[in-house]
Amino acid sequence: MNRVFVLDTNKRPLMPTSPTRARRLLRDKKAAVYRMHPFTIILKYSVEPTPQPIEAKFDPGSKTTGIALVAEFPQQGRVVLWAANLNHRGDSIRKRLADRRAIRRGRRNRKTRYRQMRVLNRKRPQGWLPPSLQSRVDNVENWLKKLLDRAPLVTVAVETVRFDTQAMQNPEISGVEYQQGELAGYELREYLLEKWNRTCAYCDAQHVPLEIEHIVSRSKGGSDRVSNLTLACRDCNQKKGNQPLEVFLAHDPKRLARIKAHAKAPLKDAAAINAIRYAIGNALKKFGLAVSFWSGGRTKKNRVSQGYTKDHWIDAACVGETGAEVHIPDGMRPLTITATGRGQRQVTRTDRHGFPRGKAGRVKRVNGFQTGDFVKLIQPKGKYAGVHVGRLAGIRSTGTFDIAANVGKFSANWKNFVLIQRGDGYAYAYA
Question: What residues contact residue 246 under an 8 Å CB cut-off, 6+ apart?
Answer without folding.
Answer: 256
